[in-house]
């Protein structure tokens, strides 16, 4: 059981304070020396550490802290909350000002104002700096600003409940310039704290209610409604029906639906589309996408090339025979500016993309290949032999919408791979950046998982019927068995193993199914990993699981694999907790970045973007400075402080995270504990990542149940409807 204490302390030594994370370590003494609840360390003081504003030497604070025993350093006190009384006595003010001035300035001030209420003199501008030796107006203005800022910050910390911790305040202060302005904003509307990353409505509501806000106040109802809309988008939809919105908002707010409906009329930046509600910015993106796609298509001009002759020459040269459907795509590409190439695993999409590139060169056009993630771009580049990039590297993604201009990308043709992964935000940014007469080929697999972001771009444009769609569904080499046969059976909902099978079964030359009881899964998957690593390098192995949590989640599986590939040594490491699992980052670890980071500085002082999904290797660990140096594609980048939390080990990924990537060998972990997370689309996506070897660890009943469960590809989106409507309007004019 944790030991929480409240104690008044005086800071004797600032051991370390890290501005980027607001974490500090201090040597302190209790003000009341006879406090028997306090355990001192071997240095005769209290080791106090944690996140807060910087505690100043010789100043007195009231802290709430948790006592923890460090095996090496003994008792330590982890900060929960820090308060500092506004100094009122001359003695306390003297100590307070010592932290804000140099020793000479401090002495000069108190040579004149000893025993005076100096803070009041400064606040009322009655402090006569001309009387203070070597203390001109410039120094006085600096001191005044420091005093007021410190007093405002202390007042802010003291005025708000304990749930409003310093991490939240720090993030808000970065936006609202001063503690005074922030305090006013918080009192006016406590729900502004939802602007802080990681703070949702429920946390904000807890703080707001503690501050005494009424349950039916307009601010609370507005924040609750917006929360429902944001959550709706997090689930992939771009609008929500009135009935569903009222139900969700009532469940959240516990306020009559009539009041919610009334408040709904006044929520800013929300539009009502015949009892379907959407965030205005999101709805506008769907309109802009539809308008730009139709404009591009309307600018279509037939390519000046004999397609039949081109295909005959290429088939002869490559010694291949295209199907009629594959040939049809090239005629559509020559005719239309917007074309879709949709195909399942093994249907020849890659070969078609190679031929498209040859056709583009033949007609002397320029082109760019793009994909949603770094992994997907690398796969595209590997298969086509042509340079590919992510959207984020090709576009100024971090710029505001109004900073985009047409023709940032001037190429004649854009090939977009893994289009099912694209949400409406990224597509809208792409379309804002291209020419009005550009040719775009959207390539995708309609059975793979839909976008993590809101919208259903690929399925919406397919279903609209507005653009040319070539659907490839003939799987080549399926009769050889193995990986292609298995993923095709999964896609078609066909079982390939008996529920009661136990043991190892081989399919073709490259797929093994290992059926074992749940209690043996941890031991067995690790055993097979050690077999695979004898043939493949760590870079060529992808271990996949449906979840991050649990003994078979990514965190613990990564730890297990790390313990085998990169054992703990005497070298430095940095420890971080993810989902209550301690993770150690060591030199030579393979890692993945999970959050877009813009203008990151390399060791060579080059500014680059490190994107979500980029894979790297740790080349250096500095525990004292709390930083990692990670090599991403030859660029050494420093990750420090909170940015380290954007890094995970990449030995094991979630099945969802694997979409768009590939590896020579895939080890799939599918256990009974994953039953409700699995479906046919997830298995299909995960298993089709493998190029040479697929090992499926499972209980067969779990697999068979998942195969019968198909992801609902329908989402509540407006794009399909808007496209049809705008196309019809165009035809009427």
UniProtKB/TrEMBL annotation:
Leader sequence residues: none
Keywords: ATP-binding, Nucleotide-binding, Plasmid
Domain UvrD-like helicase C-terminal: 649-697
UniProt-recorded name of the protein: Uncharacterized protein
GO process annotations (BP): DNA recombination
InterPro entries: Coronavir_polyprotein_1ab, P-loop_NTPase, RecD2-like_HHH, UvrD-like_helicase_C
Coiled coil: none
Family annotation (PANTHER family): DNA HELICASE B, DNA2/NAM7 HELICASE FAMILY MEMBER
Single GO term (MF): single-stranded DNA helicase activity
GO CC field: exodeoxyribonuclease V complex
Pfam families: AAA_30, HHH_RecD2, UvrD_C_2
Stretches assigned to the ATP-dependent RecD2 DNA helicase-like helix-hairpin-helix domain: 166-239
Gene3D superfamilies assigned: 1.10.10.2220, 2.30.30.940, P-loop containing nucleotide triphosphate hydrolases (3.40.50.300)
């Amino acid at each position: 059981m944790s030991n929480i204490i409240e104690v008044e302390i005086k800071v004797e030594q600032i051991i370390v304070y890290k501005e980027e994370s607001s974490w500090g370590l201090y040597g302190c003494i209790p003000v009341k020396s006879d406090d028997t609840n306090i355990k001192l360390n071997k240095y005769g003081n209290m080791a106090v550490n944690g996140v807060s504003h910087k505690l100043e030497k010789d100043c007195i604070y009231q802290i709430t802290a948790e006592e923890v025993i460090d095996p090496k350093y003994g008792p330590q006190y982890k900060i929960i909350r820090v308060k500092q009384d506004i100094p009122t006595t001359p003695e306390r003010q003297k100590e307070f000002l010592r932290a804000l001035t140099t020793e000479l300035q401090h002495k000069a001030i108190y040579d004149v104002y000893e025993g005076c209420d100096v803070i009041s003199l400064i606040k009322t501008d009655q402090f006569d700096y001309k009387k203070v030796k070597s203390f001109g107006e410039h120094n006085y203005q600096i001191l005044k600003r420091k005093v007021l800022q410190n007093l405002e910050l202390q007042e802010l910390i003291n005025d708000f409940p304990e749930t409003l911790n310093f991490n939240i305040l720090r993030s808000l202060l970065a936006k609202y310039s001063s503690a005074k302005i922030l305090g006013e904003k918080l009192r006016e509307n406590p729900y502004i704290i939802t602007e802080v990353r990681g703070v949702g409505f429920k946390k904000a509501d807890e703080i707001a209610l503690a501050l005494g806000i009424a349950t039916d106040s307009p601010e609370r109802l507005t924040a609750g409604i917006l929360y429902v809309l944001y959550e709706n988008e997090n689930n992939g939809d771009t609008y929500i029906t009135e009935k569903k919105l009222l139900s969700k908002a009532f469940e959240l707010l516990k306020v009559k639906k009539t009041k919610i409906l009334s408040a709904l009329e006044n929520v800013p930046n929300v539009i009502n589309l015949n009892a379907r509600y959407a965030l205005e910015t999101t709805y506008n993106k769907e309109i802009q996408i539809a308008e730009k796609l139709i404009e591009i298509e309307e600018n279509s001009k037939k390519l000046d090339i004999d397609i039949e002759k081109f295909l005959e020459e290429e088939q002869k040269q490559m010694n291949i025979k295209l199907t009629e459907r594959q040939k049809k795509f090239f005629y559509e590409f020559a005719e239309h500016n917007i074309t879709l190439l949709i195909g399942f695993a093994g249907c020849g999409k890659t070969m078609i993309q190679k031929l498209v590139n040859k056709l583009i060169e033949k007609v002397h056009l320029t082109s760019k290949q793009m994909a949603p993630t770094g992994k997907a771009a690398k796969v595209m580049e590997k298969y086509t032999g042509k340079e590919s990039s992510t959207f984020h590297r090709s576009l100024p993604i971090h710029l505001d919408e109004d900073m985009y201009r047409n023709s940032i990308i001037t190429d004649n043709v854009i090939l977009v791979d893994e289009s099912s992964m694209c949400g409406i935000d990224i597509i809208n940014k792409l379309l804002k950046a291209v020419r009005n007469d550009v040719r775009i080929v959207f390539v995708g697999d309609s059975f793979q998982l839909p976008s993590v972001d809101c919208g259903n771009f690929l399925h919406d444009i397919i279903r609209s019927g507005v653009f040319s769609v070539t659907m490839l569904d003939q799987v080549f080499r399926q009769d050889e068995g193995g990986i292609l046969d298995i993923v095709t059976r999964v896609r078609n909902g066909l079982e390939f193993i008996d529920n009661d099978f136990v043991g190892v079964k081989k399919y073709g030359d490259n797929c093994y199914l290992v059926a074992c009881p749940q209690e043996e899964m941890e031991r067995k998957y690790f055993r097979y990993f050690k077999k695979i690593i004898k043939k493949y390098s760590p870079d060529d192995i992808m271990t996949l699981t449906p979840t991050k949590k649990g003994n078979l989640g990514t965190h613990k599986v990564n730890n297990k694999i790390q313990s085998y590939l990169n054992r703990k040594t005497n070298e430095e490491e940095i420890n971080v907790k993810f989902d209550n699992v301690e993770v150690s980052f060591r030199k030579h670890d393979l890692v993945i970045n999970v959050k877009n980071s813009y203008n990151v500085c390399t060791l060579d002082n080059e500014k680059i973007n490190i994107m979500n999904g980029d894979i790297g290797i740790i080349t250096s660990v500095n525990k004292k400075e709390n930083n990692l140096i990670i090599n991403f594609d030859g660029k050494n980048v420093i990750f420090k402080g909170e940015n380290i939390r954007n890094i995970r080990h990449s030995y094991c990924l979630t099945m969802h995270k694997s979409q768009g990537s590939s590896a020579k060998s895939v080890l799939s972990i599918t256990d009974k504990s994953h039953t409700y997370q699995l479906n046919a689309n997830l298995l299909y996506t995960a298993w089709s990542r493998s190029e040479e070897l697929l090992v499926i660890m499972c209980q067969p009943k779990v697999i068979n149940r998942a195969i019968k469960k198909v992801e609902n590809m329908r989402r509540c989106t407006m794009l399909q409807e808007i496209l049809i409507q705008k196309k019809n309007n165009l035809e009427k004019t």
